[in-house]
Prior knowledge:
Mean pLDDT is about 80; it is low at about 160. It contains five helices and six strands; from the N terminus they run H-H-H-E-E-E-H-E-H-E-E. Helices cover about 35% and strands about 30% of the residues. It has one domain (about 1-150): Gcn5-related N-acetyltransferase (GNAT) (Aminopeptidase, 3-Layer(aba) Sandwich).
Amino acid sequence: MLEDLGEMHAIRTSEAVRKILWDDVVIKRKTAEEPINARIETFASHGFGLWTIIYKRDDKMIGFCGFRFLEGTTGIELLYGILPDYWNRGLITEAVKEVLRFGFEVKNFGRVTAITNAPNTASISVMEKAGMKFEKKDSFHEQDSVFYSITNESKIFSTDTD
């Protein structure tokens, strides 16, 4: 997975992605390596983590989607990002639905939370299309954020994308 470092660094430092995930800070390659190492550890110890998204038409890594532990808790957080050139195609919504299906059907998660900056209406739309429900508005990493969640009992899985 460390062989993905160059492409993952490019995704995470893309202007539109870094504004949301890194508070508009251009991170160093070493900083991009930390989530990859955490992903390797989480997969090894818990059987889940962040998957890369490969666009099959051009065999290019375009994003990531999956789970991590919600900061400071044992709760599960959904996290995703995709290069802007691939926005508005339904690709991230499709990825989110598939990882949620995995989380509930394979890992038997009871609940999954997703958090985004309040102005990020595109991400909110993805959450809602995946069946997640608004939970609260609160500060997260000193940002005005919205929290959405979905439970195993309320999950909705359809093959429709945006």
